[in-house]
Amino acid sequence: MQSEGPRVLLVEPFYGGSHKQLVDLLQQNVPDCCLCSLPAKKWPWRARTAALHFSQSIPVCSSYRVLFSSSVLNLCELVALRPDLARLKKVLYFHENQLVYPVRKDQERDFQYGYNQVLSCLVSDVVVFNSVFNMDSFLSSISSFMKRIPDHRPRDLDLLIRPKCVVLYYPIQFPDVSRCGEFPSSGGQQDDPHEFSCEPGTDQRPVGEGDQRRPLHIVWPHRWEHDKNPEMFFSTLMKLKEKQVDFHLSVLGETFTEVPEIFSEARRQLDAHIQNWGYLSRDRYLQVLLQADVVVSTARHEFFGVAMLEAVHCGCYPLCPKALVYPELFPAEYLYSTPEQLCKRLQGLCRRPDDARRHVVQVDTSSFSWMSLKERFVSLLSAECP
Length: 386
What we know:
2 domains; about 35% helix
């Protein structure tokens, strides 16, 4: 029997990056979906005004049963402007949260963004977070966040929101990594994790004679922005250089309008160590991850961390801060507490690179794949409320 119309309305005000990848994946795999989106530009304006745009552009349709949106949307405004959408099962997905998202100075934090997210939670039926860290940091910050209101402050909002909350990890589209470093040029989603040519988390590169003499290859695959703390990363590598420790370096990731000054200085000082520098095509990016030995995060903010898990899937040994989402995803042996600890760990691996190359990382990346998470997403987008 043919469907009478779309049952699931996907609304994405910031259709780019991980936001785009998620709704595209849902649209491809969940029957009867309809996507309404705006390009991933000018995030502050999307957060402020997308609801009004969608109130006019979303077609009226009697078959809708579920509305799924990222938390960029002010869902409260949308359902007030479109009462026909208020009756749907409303699912809100948090890639990040604006209550703890880092700003240079707390005075710079725009109250409206976090306030919109709290209001959206209050009108949602299900509030989904991509990690326990994301959920807990949001809920535990609501009370102090609301204290910025001069008087007549609302109380116990976290108690109203918490019963609606669930954690559902972001589904990563892992490449089909083979032992010889080949993968489909499409970079497409594998439906079955058992189709991988090697077990996720194992070392893809055989360690041969003379391998110990090849310098350790360190990769930093993050956005070139201050919240990823490139200053700490490059400061650590410059200390290694001062100690005359040999290593190879690949600094990947996307650049935006304002690139932190440290990148030009680091490129000059670390030039002799650099293998790759800057944004790469998907295929070339994966090739570099397959060639690298260690992947490092120095992030000041991370609610999930696709880049680190992709690198681990490609065989890299991870080093992450003992903070944010990382203790949730990585065992303690891959975590460091201070810049000094990171430097010491990297120095040890530079001197014995086979320790990283022979190591089997104790992270089952297949548990973050679409195949593992598909049933939960399909259930989430069914018309029945939990």
